[in-house]
Specification:
alpha/beta; 14% strand; SDR family NAD(P)-dependent oxidoreductase
Length: 254
């Protein structure tokens, strides 16, 4: 099969969180591989920028401004896409608080976006693929936070751990329909989400992650986008229910 295994010509992808960061990098790379990409996010301006990047490079993209925590909005957008071969459920938010200071509304908000948003997208994408009788690939976004405890990250880590279990369960249920389901658990990646501190704190945080990595660097959105492309393509046709960890070697679980 060779490098043609990564050719997505004639396929359609739906990417949440496509207005920036890993979602944008993934949408751009999937389009570069030949897919027609539906870009979804709550950030309309960012979506327009992503669409322009894809169009200017000769790719095909459309946008859907939506809140992934709203099942009806996700359902309507995916149904409007028609044929669907690939889902990359990447949209997510960050919240930091100690366990003792975590409020119900904080936990509910993070679970709504980071877990329920992934669940809704996977449900609707899988229904579309099953109805069409076509094989497909669902790619979810977990986090390196599922492999190590991080102070202040209860809401985020719990939601991402739930995504891992969702991924494995779906892989078991959807395998007979030739639909593969895999998760990506990135390490520290430079994105708008991680760039939430002032410059000095940001530098300290990145320096700490660099020291932990055998590669002595942090990740870029494109590093994770290549993992998305791999899982979306025929190059991973025998891969399902797996957690791929592009994390610079920070965590090496069995």
């Amino acid at each position: 099969m060779g490098l043609t295994a990564y050719d997505l010509t004639g396929r359609t992808a739906f990417v949440t969180g496509a207005a920036g960061g890993i979602g944008r990098a993934s949408a751009v790379l999937l389009a570069e591989a030949g897919a027609a990409v539906h870009c979804a996010d709550i950030d309309e301006k960012g979506l327009d920028e992503t669409r322009s990047m894809i169009s200017d490079a000769g790719g095909t993209a459309s946008t859907h401004t939506l809140d992934v925590a709203d099942r009806a909005q996700v359902k309507a957008a995916i149904e409007s896409a028609g044929r669907l071969d690939i889902l990359a459920a990447i949209a997510g938010i960050m919240h930091s608080s100690s366990v003792l200071e975590t409020r119900d509304e904080d936990l509910d908000r993070v679970l709504a976006v980071n877990f329920k948003g992934v669940l809704y997208a996977c449900q609707e994408a899988a229904r579309t693929m099953i109805a069409a009788g076509t094989p497909g690939s669902l790619v979810t976004m977990a986090s390196g936070a599922v492999d190590a405890a991080g102070a202040g990250l209860l809401c985020y880590s719990a939601a991402k751990a739930a995504v891992v279990q969702l991924t494995k369960t779906l892989a078991t249920e959807l395998g007979p329909h030739s639909i593969r389901v895999n998760a990506i658990a990135p390490g520290w990646v430079r994105t708008p989400m991680t760039d939430r501190h002032d410059a000095a704190l940001q530098h300290q945080a990145e320096a700490a992650m660099v020291r932990l990595s055998p590669l002595r660097r942090v990740g870029e959105p494109e590093d994770i986008a290549h993992a998305v492309l791999h899982l979306a393509s025929d190059a991973s046709s025998f891969t399902t229910g797996q957690i791929i960890r592009p994390n610079g070697g920070v965590a090496m679980p069995w």
